[in-house]
């Protein structure tokens, strides 16, 4: 079953929700000739502002490639990517780097914290580098949202994996980016720490108005999202709205070995 994926819940209700990121007819191919791999095969997708979107699909279906293209970390072979009103396809490296720094946040599976800096220094580092002063009230709210208030002077080695990922979440939120991309943000965590982080991501959408996009293999993680997109063979083949973990799990079982619906 293939469903239209370009309408948001708000659009369907007749409203005009803002689009935070948009892909139009995006093709991404790696290599050439016999070794050419088409990772994305004409993807059309709208990521709605203020929503939590999960991207799922079998291994090799193009999830990371789609995320990297939407985030301006990778270039497309053809098609168009927009971040809000800015077309990023065709932007030169310098402009793209600045755009990522100023408008996009990232959370990776491996927390990517600097070991010599304490938690609060890690959180404010991207803004320090950009020469921006963090707004104190906002920073306090973010630190409170991710439950780090008592740990701000601790270095990463003095924190558990879950606490380190909280620092990474706070770092992404602190700069108030238009959109945050998470690549398996709970992939290294046990289920309890993972649930905590997912709760914080959910709270950042609900309470702070953050737009969140997360690549995941985990049906439980996807169940925290407002919308789950399913990729197979480089195409968006289905989506679900606010599904339960069981519904996501059942949907995944419907994929055959190649990832297409059976
Ligand atoms: N740098 C690259 N060079 C060549 N092929 C690549 C490169 N990156 C990805 N691919 C190929 O593109 C396809 C999609 O890869 P991608 O990593 O986006 O999939 P994925 O759904 O994120 O997979 P996984 O769940 O295993 O992380 C795969 O066939 C992969 O081998």
TrEMBL record:
Keywords (A to Z) from UniProt: ATP-binding, Nucleotide-binding, Transport
SMART domains the UniProt entry points to: AAA
GO molecular function: ATP binding; ATP hydrolysis activity; transmembrane transporter activity
Domain of life assignment: Bacteria
Stored InterPro entries: AAA+_ATPase, ABC_transporter-like_ATP-bd, ABC_transporter-like_CS, ABC_transpr_LolD-like, MacB-like_ATP-bd, P-loop_NTPase
Recorded GO CC terms: membrane protein complex; plasma membrane
Keyword Nucleotide-binding: yes
Statement: the UniProt record of this protein carries the keyword Transport: yes
Residue ranges annotated for the ABC transporter domain, each copy included: 21-258
Name recorded for this polypeptide: Peptide ABC transporter ATP-binding protein
Organism: Streptomyces tsukubensis
Lineage start: Bacteria, Bacillati, Actinomycetota, Actinomycetes, Kitasatosporales
């Amino acid at each position: 079953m293939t469903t239209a994926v370009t309408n948001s819940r708000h659009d369907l209700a007749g409203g005009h929700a803002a689009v935070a990121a948009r892909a139009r007819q995006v093709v991404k191919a790696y290599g050439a000739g016999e070794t050419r791999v088409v990772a994305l095969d004409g993807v059309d997708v709208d990521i709605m502002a203020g929503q939590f979107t999960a991207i799922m699909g079998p291994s090799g279906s193009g999830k990371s490639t789609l995320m990297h293209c939407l985030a301006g970390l990778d270039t497309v072979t053809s098609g168009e990517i927009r971040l809000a009103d800015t077309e990023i396809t065709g932007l030169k490296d310098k402009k793209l780097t600045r755009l990522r720094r100023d408008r996009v946040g990232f959370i990776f599976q491996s927390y990517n914290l600097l070991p010599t800096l304490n938690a609060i220094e890690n959180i404010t580092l991207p803004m320090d580098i950009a020469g921006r002063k963090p707004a104190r009230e906002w920073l306090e709210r973010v630190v409170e949202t991710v439950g780090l208030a008592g740990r701000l002077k601790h270095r990463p080695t003095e924190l558990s994996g879950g606490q380190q990922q909280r620092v990474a979440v706070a770092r992404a939120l602190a700069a108030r980016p238009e959109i945050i991309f998470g690549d398996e943000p709970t992939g290294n965590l046990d289920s309890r720490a993972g649930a905590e982080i997912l709760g914080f991501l959910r709270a950042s959408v609900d309470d702070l108005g953050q737009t969140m996009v997360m690549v995941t293999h985990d049906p439980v993680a996807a169940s925290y999202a407002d919308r789950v997109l399913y990729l197979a063979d480089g195409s968006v083949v289905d989506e679900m709205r606010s599904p339960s973990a069981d519904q996501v799990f059942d949907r995944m079982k419907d994929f055959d070995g190649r990832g297409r619906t059976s």
